[in-house]
TrEMBL record:
InterPro entries with a match to the protein in the record: MFS (IPR011701), MFS_dom (IPR020846), MFS_trans_sf (IPR036259), Proton-linked_MCT (IPR050327)
Name the record gives this protein: MFS transporter
Gene Ontology terms for molecular function: transmembrane transporter activity
Organism the protein comes from: Streptomyces tsukubensis
Keyword annotations: Membrane, Transmembrane, Transmembrane helix
Location of this chain's protein in the cell: Cell membrane
GO cellular component terms attached to this protein's record: plasma membrane
UniProt signal peptide: none
Length: 418
């Protein structure tokens, strides 16, 4: 077995560990509101800071991996996640929630974002890139699957603090695993990338990580595909992490569904997301990525329009159908989006995808905050579900406008806007 597959396994397990904290926000909105009497808008603001930093940190993390290596950056990021999660146990004011949960965990998890998966895939694989991207993207959903039932049980039986401690311990436990088994480049172990026809030496460290990340953004921002990818991916984030992952549990609870039942439904979404994302990676290696994305966004929008009619005190067959249908589409958008970044931006594609991911998280942050405010103002989430469905239709149209890059490999020529 090629060493690249071991690196992919390590990366998968690492992302699963980091995904534990991403399972918590939707579970804690009601307990924090009950204990501290903080409004849902205030709690949603902390979640929005977390989601925004998760995205904004990603391109700089990709550049830092080029400078200091994947292993060092990931180990530090996991430690920061553990520290932020543990400190939330002692908070007494809402600004501490913003600092610990929003800033520390947001920045740490941003360094563990999908740009990490893109960097590993670009360095270690030439063949099967779409499939590997799908598998690594599914790692986040697997983390949700593993931790959601356990954390929801903890929150309901023992309160939210044991859940935060569990997340901290999980993140710190992954650090030795990363340090011992992860390697930065195939040349570190004397190998070529999987599927490569010749050996590629390890490139020297790239200095000026922050400057390079900004320079890549400025260059990419002069091209049309970047804005179309960033805009559509912002809607992707708004309709998944910002809306469903953050507000589905409290929305179901508004209809008198038990928190553990709602959290279990999110976990089931995670099950089918693994299937859908791996399948999407396989499709990405074989079909037009733009049409794939258009189909994904259109189907997601349709499902969200029906969700307000399906929420009820108990789980019934139509809701299960939504969970399966929506789960297959949860992050199936990632493999074709990474493939389009690679097609248009070549060796800078990981950093460009980091900026596209930043837009994803900004969209998620806006909806996480707006969803909480809408619940406070209107007394329900219905208007947010309908708005998200309409936005997904717009995203489907945006990706169809993207043209194929004229240069298929290397540092692809960037096509100016207009």
């Amino acid at each position: 077995m090629h060493r690249a597959w071991l690196v992919a396994v390590v990366t998968f397990v690492t992302i699963v560990g980091a995904a534990a904290f991403a399972s918590v926000p939707g579970l804690l909105i009601e307990p924090l509101h009950a204990e501290f009497d903080w409004s849902r808008g205030t709690i949603g603001f902390a979640v929005s800071i977390n989601l925004a930093l998760y995205g904004v940190t990603a391109p700089f993390a990709a550049a830092l991996m080029d400078r200091f290596g994947i292993r060092r950056v990931v180990a530090v990021a996991l430690t920061v996640i553990a520290a932020g999660s543990f400190l939330t146990v002692f908070m007494t004011a809402s600004w501490q929630l913003v600092l610990y949960w929003g800033v520390l965990v947001g920045a740490g998890s941003g360094s563990m974002a999908l740009a990490f998966a893109a960097t590993v895939t670009n360095r270690w694989f030439v063949a099967r890139r779409g499939l590997v991207t799908g598998i690594l993207t599914a790692a986040g959903a697997s983390g949700q699957l593993v931790f959601l039932p356990l954390l929801s049980w903890m929150v309901e039986r023992h309160g939210w603090r044991p859940a935060s401690v569990t997340v901290a311990l999980t993140a710190i436990a992954v650090v030795p695993f990363v340090w011992l088994l992860l390697r930065d480049h195939p040349a570190d172990v004397g190998l070529s990338a999987y599927g490569a026809t010749e050996f590629t030496p390890k490139p020297p460290p790239v200095r000026g990580a922050a400057r390079r990340a900004v320079a890549v953004l400025v260059s990419a921002a002069r091209t049309g595909p970047f804005w179309l990818l960033a805009g559509s991916f912002a809607i992707c984030g708004a309709s998944t992490n910002g809306l469903v992952k953050t507000h589905f549990v409290p929305a179901a609870h508004d209809h008198h569904m038990p928190i553990t039942a709602a959290a279990s439904l999110l976990a089931v979404i995670g099950v089918f997301d693994v299937v859908g994302t791996v399948a999407s990676g396989w499709f990405t290696d074989r079909f037009d990525t733009r049409r794939l994305l258009a189909v994904y966004y259109a189907l997601r929008g349709i499902s969200l329009l029906f969700l307000p009619m399906l929420l009820a005190p108990s789980v019934h067959p139509p809701m299960l159908f939504f969970i399966v249908f929506y789960g297959l589409d949860w992050v199936a958008t990632v493999p074709p989006t990474i493939a389009l970044c690679r097609e248009h931006y070549g060796e800078d594609s990981a950093i460009v995808f980091g900026w596209v991911l930043a837009s994803h998280q900004v969209g998620a942050a806006v909806i996480a905050f707006a969803g909480g405010v809408a619940r406070d103002v209107f007394g329900s989430y219905d208007v947010v579900w309908y708005a998200a469905g309409a936005l997904c239709a717009g995203a489907a149209l945006m990706v169809l406008v993207i043209r194929h890059a004229p240069v298929p490999k290397g540092r692809a020529a960037m096509v100016p806007v207009g």
